[in-house]
Amino acid sequence: MLKSRKPRIIQLTGAVFLAATLVACGTSEEPAPAPAPETTEASPSSEVESSSEETSTEQSSSETETSTESKSADPSESESEEPTETTSTSASGFSDDIDAAYEIFSSIAPRELFEKFDSCDSVGADNNYNCSGPEVGQLQFSASSNRATQTTQVLTELRSSTVLEDSGDRVVGWSTLGSTAVLTVVDNKDGLVVQQMLSTDQEDPEDRLIELGLYDPKK
User: Fold this and answer.
1) Which pLDDT score is estimated for 125?
2) Cβ neighbours for 90, distance < 8 A, ≥ 6 positions apart
3) Which of 9, 113, 209, 214 is the most exposed place for a label (fewest CB within 10 A)?
């Protein structure tokens, strides 16, 4: 009876050892299952922050473009305006400087002549003016009884002078020196003198006096 139990024990022991060996081999040869990939999801707070940053950037860009357009739309607003000079006009329609001369010499020269002046500058003594315009050139006006008397004597006594009109109070003519003529109108009653220098090579003195409205041959 004792002899028959030993072989069974040995067989059982061998079977257990073989099973353990097979289990160990199977475990070492089969690869371990790969871990599941981890997925990262953006948290709601990070999405809100990203959206807020994008909105802020868009608003800043929009404000910058709007500011640039408003500045370029009207460049005159950013530039300082330069002061402009204005010339006051009197009731007669002339500027103040021309009106001052016209009030004094209106009896010796027509209004149409003053309308052709751009300026009348006061020179030397009071009531002396140099008036000029592109169409008529420059004329000298003087309010002086002594000068009116002296100019009348020169105009009527010199052989180089030509008198077109002499009514006592009013004398119109010119004096010649070479190719230069001094056109002269004198009002002895009010002590006024008007003169202009002219080149006789370019224009006839009488025609010039008529053109200026200082002499009318029909009168």
Assistant:
1) 73
2) 96, 99
3) 9
Token representation of residue 6: 């030993």
pTM: 0.59
How many helices (H) does the chain have, and how many strands (E)?
6, 7
Has domain 96-211 been given CATH number 3.10.450? no
Confidence category of residue 148, pLDDT binned at 50, 70, 90: very high
Amino acid of residue 195: Q
Pick 169 or 51 by higher pLDDT: 169
Cβ burial of 197 (10 Å; 0-12, 13-18, 19+) is middle
Contact present, 139 and 131 (Cβ < 8 Å): yes
Q: Each residue of 153-211: pLDDT tens digit?
A: 999 999 999 999 999 899 999 999 999 999 999 999 999 999 999 999 999 999 999 99
What residues have CB less than 8 Å from 193, skipping those under 6 apart? 108, 140, 141, 142, 143, 144, 147, 148, 151, 184, 185, 186, 187
Q: Write the pLDDT tens digit of every residue in 190-205.
A: 999 999 999 999 999 9
What's the rounded Cα separation, in Å, for the pair 185 and 173?
Answer: 7
Taking the CA atoms of the chain, what radius of gyration do you get in angstroms?
A: 58
The CA-to-CA distance between both ends of the chain, in Å, stands at 186
- Quote the tokens at residue 29: 């040869």
Q: 168, 126 in Cβ contact below 8 A?
A: no
